[in-house]
Design a protein that fits this description.
The protein contains two helices and eight strands, in the order βββαββββαβ. By secondary structure, the protein is mainly β.
């Protein structure tokens, strides 16, 4: 049996941009993506700590070292610049393997979104 588990998490990143006129997705600093083991195009869930919104979308690689966290398209209506968000990637794995799996957890600096 396969179960879906947390594979990756970027905890309490700050939204730096919201672009309603973009096709969709979330743009994330490439360094954060690498540290969290998230790939471009991966489906993620975004949890907004400021208003409780939960959004599902896919990732776009942002400039490395920029600290960018930008919600694009319709998702831009669900955040405000400065909001604190958790970005979660999930994966499917065998039930027994899931019992010992350890996800990649990243805790960026809340002011810059860079890894300290």
């Amino acid at each position: 049996m396969l179960v879906q588990v947390v594979k990756s998490k970027i905890h309490r990143a700050r939204v730096t941009q919201a672009d309603l006129n973009y096709i969709g997705s979330i743009t994330i600093d490439e360094e954060l993506m690498k540290a969290a083991n998230i790939i471009e195009g991966e489906r993620v869930q975004i949890v907004n700590n400021n208003n409780g919104e939960r959004i599902e979308t896919y990732t776009i690689k942002g400039e490395a070292g920029s600290g960018v966290i930008c919600l694009n398209g319709a998702a831009a209506r669900r955040v405000a610049v400065g909001d604190s968000v958790i970005i979660i990637g999930y994966g499917f794995m065998d039930f027994e393997d899931a019992k010992s799996f350890k996800p990649s957890l990243v805790f960026p600096n809340e002011q810059t979104n860079l890894i300290d």
